[in-house]
Amino acid sequence: MWNSVLVKRALPLSFSYLLLVAASLSLDYILHAAGLDWTGRYLGIAGTALVAFSFGYSARKKKLFRNGPLSLFLRLHCNAGWVGTLLILVHSGIHFNAILPWSATALMMVVTASGHVGQYLVRKLREEVRVKKKQLGIQDGNVDGLEQQAYWDAMTVKAFEQWRHMHMPMVSFLVVLTIIHIVSVTFFMNWR
Fold first, then answer.
1. How far separated are the first and last CA of the chain, in Å rounded?
2. 16, 127 Cβ separation under 8 angstroms
3. pLDDT digits (tens, 9 = 90+) for 23-36
4. pTM over 0.85
5. Which DSSP symbol is given to 114?
6. What's the domain count of the chain?
7. Taking the C-alpha atoms of 179, 183, 188 and 189 in order, what is their torsion angle to the nearest 10 degrees?
8. Per-residue pLDDT tens for 124-151?
9. Could you tell me the residue range of the domain that residue 113 belongs to?
10. What's the CA gap between 43 and 132, in Å, rounded?
């Protein structure tokens, strides 16, 4: 159990995700304590710009441009997405005034979990299970003799392989919510 893929890979990434939430709460608290809570409004703009920048990975993956290694774009995608999400969480803070901010923040957290955790886990888990199966002498499709740990590792990989089928529609819906939010803020907010 303690040597399983779930414990070795999924728990550290879950901790990283919780660290994102803790960092945003801490930064929001520090800004409020320093009397700089008004800066949260502008952190949303910076966070949105970083998240938009992270879409460079998708553009590179679809070969809209061909320069640069894909692995670099993936790292930029994950890091810009993490920092952008942090800034947007500080932007939203604990000041949820309507359904749109609640919905957008909740969906952003789901997309962040899906994107950062899902893709990383699929790659790492698939490789680790392949190595373990090779060590145990197990052929693909041959479940006979599969040890309990290898079985649960394979089940974990299968569960995470489906993440992209949910990730992309959620990203699209998040983009729509973000555009609605920006338009409504531009229309109704008094930017001092």
1. 56
2. no
3. 998 998 999 999 99
4. no
5. I
6. 1
7. 70
8. 766 777 777 777 776 655 555 555 666 6
9. 5-188
10. 45
